[in-house]
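Subject: design request, 166 residues
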């Protein structure tokens, strides 16, 4: 079963995530490429991994889902050039936190989860187990998405070379 379908079939997860996933501003992240996927799908997968880890470790699953879902809730495209990407790498946790406060009224724990998810790249450190879990989940999903993208690019170049050599 496709991971996204599995996530959408998880009633406990969706009971918390659905209001965010269907919000008109958050839905706009479906149109932004992110780690070889969309920012929307990336965020859903991060939130789900964080939820499962939090549940397994007896942590606050609701905050993990909310923080995981909203950790990259910014609408600026960051794939235009290296300068824009670098700037957004540093600034996006604060922008995502501000959007999460504006549209969803997240609490202080959830704000820290969002703002610290880039640690140690960012200067904001995780203050809770859930913040550490979301930061780890983000890295796991980012690496997984990047691996899939890299494999596709290698395959494309191999096809190009094979056709070029013929």
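Subject: RE: design request

Done. Sequence follows.
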């Amino acid at each position: 079963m496709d991971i996204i379908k599995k996530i959408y079939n998880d009633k406990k997860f969706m009971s918390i995530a659905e209001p965010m996933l269907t919000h008109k501003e958050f839905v706009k992240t479906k149109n932004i490429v992110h780690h070889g996927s969309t920012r929307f799908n990336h965020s859903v997968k991060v939130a789900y991994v964080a939820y499962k880890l939090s549940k397994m470790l007896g942590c606050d699953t609701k905050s993990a889902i909310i923080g995981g879902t909203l950790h990259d809730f910014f609408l600026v495209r960051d794939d235009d050039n290296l300068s824009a990407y670098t700037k957004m790498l540093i600034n996006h946790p604060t922008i995502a936190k501000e959007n999460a406060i504006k549209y969803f009224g997240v609490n202080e724990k959830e704000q820290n989860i969002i703002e610290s998810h880039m640690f140690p790249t960012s200067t904001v450190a995780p203050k809770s187990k859930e913040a550490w879990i979301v930061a780890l989940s983000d890295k796991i999903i980012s690496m997984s998405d990047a691996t899939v993208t890299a494999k596709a690019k290698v395959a494309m170049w191999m096809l190009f070379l094979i056709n070029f050599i013929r």
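The two ends are 39 Å apart (CA to CA).
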